[in-house]
């Protein structure tokens, strides 16, 4: 007997994330087009093995992982699926500019949402996810700005999250849970911090090289 659609969607999302992580680990330090065939077969086997029932409750392994990770956002699952497709296909589908712009928006949203949701202010932004014109208007405005700038990834992810939310694909009825989750937020914050550090380090090196040239 198949589990309810919400459980099936949540477990499938977790499965994709775990398999993508395994593939990235096994293909460490290799370019997209250099993934060995055995790595792909191991990843495919892992995808199916994680559905095997274990324990007295005869639940799939993914159900136990779900108890730790909770449900993942539609955005994270879509991004992981896209990254998995890129690595298996051997070429980039999304430009680096798109990824960095998305990371910036997700990081900013996380710094805005989670402190307020934890009670660090007088207004709980998480409540807006149960359906407010303010959140819908903000999503439309950000998506329109990105689209006009030639950035298609964020608008498509927002549209996908809205469709999943309308269909009730996850157990949560809050739109924020479809748009982002703590795992996605941490990844975006890390990527932004790494990007900022690399830019700063490159600037310091250029300044040091320029100073050395001037002193000669």
Automatic annotation (TrEMBL):
The chain crosses the membrane at residues 6-26, 38-57, 63-85, 97-118, 130-148, 153-170, 182-202. The keyword Membrane applies. Keywords: Membrane, Transmembrane, Transmembrane helix. This is Uncharacterized protein. The lineage of its organism: Bacteria, Pseudomonadati, Pseudomonadota, Betaproteobacteria, Burkholderiales.
